[in-house]
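2024-03-11 09:14:02 INFO worker-7 job=invfold-0412 stage=load source=structure_tokens
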């Protein structure tokens, strides 16, 4: 079930204070004079409770880790968080995919089993992966379903969004295009949001040289990560219903 981010509500009680009578009267006082001795009740000023920022977990490969970026702060997950005002946790492993083991030996399936259940994100982005392009694509549906199911079981209140692979070189590798098509169909079957950088032409012949660093194994540069963050933030803002963008008003 998608989580609803509700604005913090402050309940304040009006506190009436009675001013003490000063002095003693030797002679009877008129009703008007007696009334003047009372102070009008004053309402306490409420102290606003800060609304917590929505949180996002981005799970993926070397693009999510920020390979070729100056540091993780310049990688697209954290830059997306800055644009949206969200807290972000990024978990990426170089070379990892649904079917391909990463630099540390992790497949997506083995890595999701290690997710911290206490993280409790509002949104989970599962990104990738071009690393599966040389694997048996017929095995992708089973692997992807298992990964997404594990994410949903670990974070049952989070919105899970699938971010497909983005081209690192052009012309587009047909195998990467096939991965994108398979994941898009699977996400639709599962009722999950799907963002396709390929279908939306995030990277084209006109801009790929500006955003992809060929000297860094064809990964996004700092400029590339900033661009990816802008595109991702814009797409997330259009997904409906996505609770962090649709606060529930009491």
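2024-03-11 09:14:09 INFO worker-7 stage=emit residues=250
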């Amino acid at each position: 079930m998608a989580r609803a981010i509700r604005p913090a509500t402050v309940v304040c009680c009006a506190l009436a204070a009675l001013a003490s009578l000063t002095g003693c009267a030797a002679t009877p006082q008129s009703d008007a004079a007696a009334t003047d001795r009372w102070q009008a009740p004053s309402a306490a000023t409420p102290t606003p409770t800060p609304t917590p920022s929505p949180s996002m977990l981005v799970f993926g490969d070397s693009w999510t880790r920020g390979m070729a970026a100056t540091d993780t702060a310049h990688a697209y997950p954290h830059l997306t968080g800055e644009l949206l005002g969200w807290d972000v946790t990024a978990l990426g492993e170089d070379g990892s995919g649904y079917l391909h083991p990463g630099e540390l030996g992790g497949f997506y399936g083995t890595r999701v089993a290690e997710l911290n259940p206490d993280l409790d994100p509002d949104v989970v982005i599962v990104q990738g992966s071009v690393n599966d392009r040389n694997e048996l694509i017929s095995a992708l549906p089973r692997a992807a379903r298992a990964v997404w199911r594990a994410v949903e079981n670990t974070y049952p209140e989070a919105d899970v969004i699938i971010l497909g692979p983005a081209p690192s070189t052009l012309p587009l590798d047909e195998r990467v295009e096939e991965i994108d098509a398979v994941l898009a169909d699977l996400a639709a079957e599962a009722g999950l949001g799907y963002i396709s950088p390929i279908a939306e032409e995030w990277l084209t012949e006109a801009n790929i040289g500006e955003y992809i660093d060929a000297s860094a194994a064809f990964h996004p540069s700092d400029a590339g990560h900033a661009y990816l963050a802008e595109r991702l933030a814009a797409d997330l803002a259009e997904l409906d219903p996505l609770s962090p963008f649709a606060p529930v008003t009491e």
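2024-03-11 09:14:09 INFO worker-7 stage=report msg="The first strand starts at residue 14 and ends at 15."
2024-03-11 09:14:10 INFO worker-7 job finished
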